[in-house]
Amino acid sequence: MKEVLILSRQQFIDKVLPKIDEAKNTFFISILEPDDKIENLHEDTENYKTWKFDDLDRDIEDYHAITFEQAKEIFEFIKKNEGKNLITHCYAGVARSGAVGEFYFEMLGGSYGELKNKFPNISPNPRVLHYLRIAEKMSIKTDLDKIFI
């Protein structure tokens, strides 16, 4: 099975970023806070993308949870890179990246229990996970519509 690695922002900066160009058969999802002064930790490429949203299950004042449009973009990026290793990070490496990591790990045939054994501190953000699963179901329906039209 392909690897899923869920990291904090600092772990990603210290351990992955210096060697990112050496990574083979790997894609990267970077999740930053919307008010982060850093635009990106690395330029977006075919195997590296950055999204910005807060670790919330709904918008609260000036803090913004993931939008469904962002979830669809993340799903499409994952689908395009399916079969590769995933390295994902958010600030703490717990909730937002935990949800993205769980979603991809399950796509690859793994279970949440297996992932939790590997990363005991994760607590996947339920909105992120739910929106990714909806995006996947919508994609399957669209693919079926194309076949049967």
Question: Top keywords for this entry?
Answer:
42% helix; 15% strand; four-stranded parallel sheet; 149 residues; Protein-Tyrosine Phosphatase, Chain A; 4 strands; alpha/beta
Number of domains: 1
Shape: globular
Strand content: 15-25%
What is the mean predicted local confidence, pLDDT?
93
- By CATH's scheme, which homologous superfamily applies? Protein tyrosine phosphatase superfamily
Largest sheet: 4 strands, parallel
Which class in CATH terms?
A: Alpha Beta
What is the terminal-to-terminal distance?
Answer: 35 Å
How many whole angstroms does the radius of gyration measure? Answer: 15 Å
Instruction: Provide the succession of SSEs.
Output: EHEEHEHHH
Question: Helix count?
Answer: 5
Q: Which fold name fills CATH's third level, the topology? A: Protein-Tyrosine Phosphatase, Chain A
Q: How does this model look, in words?
A:
The protein is an alpha/beta fold. The protein has one domain (4-148): Protein tyrosine phosphatase superfamily (Protein-Tyrosine Phosphatase, Chain A, Alpha-Beta Complex), CATH 3.90.190. It is built from 5 helices and 4 strands. The chain has helices at 9-16, 68-80, 96-107, 112-118, 126-148, and strands spanning 4-8, 26-32, 48-52, 85-90. Strands 1-4-2-3 form a 4-stranded parallel beta sheet. Helix 3 runs parallel beside helix 5. The longest helix has 23 residues, at 126-148. The chain is globular. The model has no long low-confidence stretch (mean pLDDT 93).
